[in-house]
Design brief:
By secondary structure, the chain is an alpha/beta fold. It is 42% helix and 16% strand. It has 3 domains: 164 residues, 3-Layer(aba) Sandwich (Rossmann fold), CATH 3.40.50.280; 184 residues, tm_1862 like domain (pyruvate-formate lyase- activating enzyme, Alpha-Beta Horseshoe); 70 residues. Bound molecules: cobalamin (B12).
């Protein structure tokens, strides 16, 4: 590829891909994903932060700019970069392949480097997509910058020493071992590379949403999860508090969303972070994703004092059978305890649920509906199971013949627009699950509890008529969706 020709790099663009043409996600009701949030591409920011110290780097987040494929191609052509780095999830390989194809036609010299979660799953398939020059799988903080060094020096030997790099050498594909970045002294992501006005969530409407991570990887082995970075590394508490202090000094009234896969694995670190926030009197609000164990009264008291506003828990199911089978290693007791503590100390909760696992009976799904009632989360997000690529659940469905072919591998080699995951359940089951999902949202978001709590919070905070009507509209959509799925299921049963 390199042929020892040095490359003058006068512009590097790092691209967060548009949603246009991404995989259809049938497993979450439309009303649950509608404009709920726009989050920044933190991973891309880490890659940019390192490279920017040595090269002219621009981060282009076209999700925030609400671009489609065409606008993205035009904008990239105007920028005319020498190198483009793309952050790719499996969901967005179609818009990616389309953008590369179109830009390569106009800018044949531009070098395309693809990174992001998808590349750890399908590195070779990604490299073989038309126009892709290099792939960097795994954490690319250092490797992307090193690749720019090797390209500007033109020494192809250097390619063999770049962790995670996947490249062609004649006919063969060379795959270097993924990098494991130490998080001991990770530079803070340079957030000035993004316009933060774009980023918001419906749950934190009055605040400036700023995201951060305090650890990388998740050591747990939940069978449905496609987080591939399993070696857990946590940043020192003082370093995390330093970054929080930095964010508070940079943004007005921020709510910091900690996007760790699991924030509270190390109990002592959580207490140290809270103590650091308390000692520095950082007036901040933050939210995090956590596991229901370890989660005890002392932790909750400290986190509340330190400004914790909301915790997102992956509860997944109210069926003990399912919790065991998905290897969640969390018991219902842990969950009940965690939600009780959050209620006791007025910490909002968001609980994620999945229904429709291969073994699940109607009783298992009823267990989940009952469990939601029992733990009383502030918000819920529920979807039917979607067999993510390279997960244990996906491989089991293939082994059991429920899924006839490795459709993700096929899609990874030949991305198609709005790829619809082949259905692996019977029509009857799908209609039943759709109706149960609508029922879960209806029972929760139209429950007297939720409506009265919500009206109360609306009145206590800045009541906005538009937000009120937005909620009424959402309520009507949920009811309509439930009635439609009820009729559809009935019609299916009559066939
Ligand atoms: C925050 C988050 C979101 C946010 C923000 C997404 C974003 N653009 O950053 C929101 C809510 C928008 C989101 C949406 C979705 N997400 Co999400 N998300 C996450 C989460 C929890 C953290 C991401 C993060 O910040 N990680 C920390 C940073 C440091 O790591 P990173 O992003 O992986 O980046 C590193 C490497 O990947 C690499 N890298 C990344 N980009 C690039 C680019 C180049 C050029 C290079 C060289 C390297 C490189 O280097 C980075 C630094 O080390 C991950 C779980 C996880 N553990 O990563 C899931 C995850 C990325 N999401 C996932 C999914 C499936 C989705 C959705 C499709 C869900 C949906 N149905 O809508 C959408 C699609 C979004 C998209 N961009 O395509 C999957 C992706 C799996 C896959 N096979 O691709 C993950 C892994 C897990 C999961 N199931 O939730 N998500």
């Amino acid at each position: 590829m390199l042929k020892n020709k040095s490359l003058k790099i006068s512009k590097v663009v790092l691209l967060n891909l548009p949603e246009e043409g991404q995989c259809a996600d049938y497993y979450t009701p439309d009303y649950a994903i509608e404009e709920f949030s726009v989050y920044p591409p933190l991973g891309l920011l880490y890659v940019a932060t390192e490279a920017k110290k040595f090269y002219p780097v621009e981060v282009l987040d076209v999700v925030a700019l609400r671009y489609g494929i065409k606008e993205t191609v035009n904008h990239v052509e105007r920028l005319h970069p020498d190198v483009i780095g793309i952050s790719c999830t499996t969901f967005r390989i179609f818009p990616m392949s389309e953008i590369i194809r179109q830009v390569k036609m106009k800018l044949p010299e531009t070098i395309f480097v693809v990174g992001g979660p998808h590349t750890s799953l399908y590195p070779v398939e990604t490299l073989n997509l038309p126009g892709v020059d290099f792939v960097i799988k795994g954490e690319g903080d250092r490797s992307f910058k090193t690749l720019l060094d090797v390209l500007s020096l033109g020494n192809s030997e250097g390619l063999y020493n770049i962790p995670g790099l996947v490249f062609r050498e004649g006919e063969r594909v060379v795959q270097n071992r993924e990098d494991v970045v130490s998080v001991e002294n990770l530079p803070f992501p340079d957030r000035r590379l993004l316009n933060w006005d774009y980023y918001h969530t419906a749950a934190d409407k009055a605040e400036q949403v700023v995201t951060m991570i305090s650890s990388r990887g998740c050591p747990f082995q939940c069978t449905f999860c496609d987080v591939m970075i399993k070696n857990y590394r946590s940043r020192p508490a003082i370093d995390v508090v330093n970054e929080m202090e930095h964010i508070v000094s940079e943004y007005d009234n921020p709510v910091i969303q900690v996007f760790d896969d699991t924030f509270n694995i190390d109990r002592k670190r959580v207490l140290d972070i809270c103590e650091g926030i308390r000692q520095r009197k950082l007036n901040l609000k933050w939210t995090t994703r956590a596991r229901a164990n370890p989660f005890d009264e002392e932790m909750v008291v400290k986190m509340k004092e330190a400004g914790l506003k909301r915790v997102h828990f992956g509860v997944e199911s109210g069926s003990e059978t399912t919790l065991k089978k998905i290897n969640k290693s969390i018991s219902k007791e842990h969950v009940v305890n965690a939600f009780q503590l959050c209620r006791k100390y007025q910490i909002d909760t968001l609980a994620y649920f999945i229904i429709g696992f291969e073994w699940e009976t109607k009783e298992d799904i009823q267990d989940t509906i009952r469990f939601i009632k029992e733990i009383k989360p502030t918000f819920i997000m529920a979807n039917t199971l979607y067999p993510a690529a390279k997960t244990k659940i996906y491989e089991e469905l293939i082994k059991h013949g429920k899924i006839k072919e490795d459709f993700w591998q096929k899609f990874a080699s030949n991305p198609v627009r709005n790829f619809n995951l082949p259905q692996w359940q019977s029509l009857k089951t799908r209609k039943y699950l759709k109706r149960k999902l609508d029922e879960i949202y209806l029972r929760f978001y139209l429950s007297p509890d939720f409506v009265s709590n919500n009206l109360k919070s609306d009145v206590s905070e800045s009541f906005s008529l538009s937000h009120f009507f937005y909620k009424v509209k959402l309520a009507i959509i949920i009811v309509k969706s439930y009635v439609v799925s009820l009729v559809e299921e009935f019609m299916t049963l009559r066939r």
